[in-house]
C-alpha cells in the first residue's frame, strides 16, 4: 500500500481526520514565574511562555507552550541554530537536553484537547467533533496536531527569536502521549526525529501480539532472570468510556484485533524517509499493560521495510530496564544517534546497539 492509502485508513478507521493549513502566529509572553506544585508532576512550569495562535476559516484559538532555552550555546555542531525537542508533557531529562545545547518546548497538552470524550480544547475550538466521520478527530490526533502547530510557529519566526534550527526538530511523549507522538510522526513529515515512548496499544504495540503469561530472561540488562508478563491492555479497554475519546467512532466497529486489517508497524513506516529518523523507547519490566514485547515486534516489522529501502539505520530502538518514562539513559543514546545521523558526528556510537533488545533471544 502507498503511504497516502495507509494514512487514509488510519484517519477513517482509527485516529480521525488530520488537519493542517491553518494560519499560525505567536506571541512572546515572557518567563514563567509560577512555582512548582510538588503534588502535580505533570504541571508545566518554567521557560519562556509563548502563546500559539491559530486561525482556520472563521474560527480562532490559542494555547501556551513553554520554551526552555539551551544552556550551552554557540556549539560548532549547531552553527545553523540549536536543535529542539517538542514534548507533549514534562519529561525528566529536560536538563540533560538543555546542558547539551538543545532547546525544549513543552505543551500544556490538556489545553489542546481534553483527555476524555467531551472533545474540548483548542483543537476542537476550530474543528468541533461531529456525527459524520469527516468531522471526527480523536484526542490522540488532536494532541499530535498541537505539536505540529508549535512546529508551524517555529518556522513562522520562533526559530529566529531563539536561534533554533527549524529543520532539526524532534517530538516525544510517554504512554498515551507516546501514542500521539507516533501519530504525529506519521502525519507531519517535517519532524526530523519521532520518539514514541512506552506507547502501548493504539501506539506501537501490535494488536495481534500477546505477551500476557509469557516469561523472559532480563538478567543480561540487569533485570530479573525470569519475568512473566501480566495482563496486556485489550482492545475493548481502548474502546471503553475512559479511552474511546482517543479515537474516532469508526474504531468501535472492531470487536477483535484480527478484524483490524492494518497493524501498528505502519505508523513508523509512514515516517520513513532518507532525512527522517525514528527512535523507539520502552522498558522491559513493569510494562505488562503496554505490552513491551509487542513494541519490539513492531520495530522488527517496520525495520525490515526500512532495510528494504536502504534506510535501516534510520530506525532505532532502546529498551531501558524499568520506568514508564523517558529517562536519561535513553536521552544519552538519542542525542548521540541524532548527532550521528543528522550532523554526521563521529561520536563512537555503535548503531548496531540500537537494533536489538533482550527480546532478540526469544521467538
TrEMBL record:
UniProt superkingdom: Bacteria
Q: Which GO terms describe its biological process?
A: xylan catabolic process
Q: Where is the 4-O-methyl-glucuronoyl methylesterase-like domain?
A: 52-309
GO terms (molecular function) for this protein are: carboxylic ester hydrolase activity; hydrolase activity, acting on glycosyl bonds
Keyword field: Carbohydrate metabolism, Glycosidase, Hydrolase, Polysaccharide degradation, Serine esterase, Signal, Xylan degradation
Q: Does Hydrolase show up as a keyword for this record?
A: yes
Q: Record's Pfam families?
A: GCE_fung
Protein name listed in UniProt: Endo-1,4-beta-xylanase
The species is Butyrivibrio fibrisolvens DSM 3071
